Amino acid sequence: MPQDELEQKIVDLQNQIDELNGLISKNQYSNTIIETKQIIQQEGFMQSPNYSVGISGWKINSDGNVEFNEGDFRGNVDIGSLDIPNSITANSFHVDTEGNAWWGATTIGSATAKILKTGVAYFTDITITGGTFINTAATLAEARLNTLFKSNIFIGSNSDGLTSTAATGGGSVTRYLENTVLATGDNASFSTLVSVAPGISSSIGQFICYVKVSNSTQNEIFWGRASEVTGLLNGVLTSSHVGFIVDRSGNLYASSCDGVTQVKSDAITGITLTNYNIYRINFTGSALEFYINDVLKATISTHLDWNEFISFAIANYNGAGTRYLYVGNSYTLIDNV
Questions:
Q1: H-helix or E-strand spanning residue 298
Q2: For position 325, which CATH number holds?
Q3: What domain range is 262 assigned to?
Q4: Distance, CA of 214 to chain centre
Q5: Contact 249, 317 (CB under 8 A)
Q6: What's the whole-model pTM score?
Q7: Which residues of 220-229 are buried (b: 16+ CB within 10 A; e: fewer)?
Q8: CA distance 302 to 255
Q9: Within its chain, how far is the Cα of 219 from the centroid?
Q10: Which of 72, 103, 193, 249 is the most exposed place for a label (fewest CB within 10 A)?
């Protein structure tokens, strides 16, 4: 080969090398594969020559996704969520972005083993082989039980001895294992469930019951403590009492009467009477506090009376159709606590 032709080929080859180096340094190559014994670099990713998805090697994609076999990190690792071995395998482990962890299911709702960020844990079984186990809930419950046993307490049941009365018109009172159903019948019938003797005389106390009604209008309904309830009419009850009253228009009130003057709260709103709700009355000694579902709804501090019968009553003033008052049998009266 002539000398000048050889020199020209060397120049051309050097130009190609320079051009390739420039493209690599500027990361502007397209559809170019650079392969060595240790790395394959192509537009959009880098990988090891032995890379096989899920089997061997490693790969780094331009979208930020990577695949490695294992690694050692000497600093912190921050991740959004964790799925081992992945997000679709049933027998798997997961931690979501909120810090909740679960095992053995793809979703936390269907997992039988999980620990929530609130500290609540769910397991089907647990064995502790050593160390110290501190059960705060049991400790608190034990303290509460000790308090109750040192106090005067009455808890309802289907055989608690309360007197059932149904007036004319087809009314009835039925004691079931879990609840008691007071039914009215037609023509202004009245059904009541009352204790056989007044409650324990005390200066402070609490009454709790779980109640719902079938119809929120055309009734006269009472639950609480009362010396007599059949005089209830249009939401007015002048016998000694403390409790909740529903008038025939469906208005719910907190009420107290010392046998002379009845005091009622404003109508309590936002309560669905046809759903079970927890009604609680606290007697502080100087005031009555009326709670529904643990929310204070009314306070009465005059014309108070606490030491009366446990009483539930419903009357039908619609003239037709049966009305029901459902009372959970776990109603509770606690005095001097």
A1: strand 295-300
A2: 2.60.120.200
A3: 153-335
A4: 25
A5: no
A6: 0.56
A7: bbbbbbbbbb
A8: 11
A9: 32
A10: 72
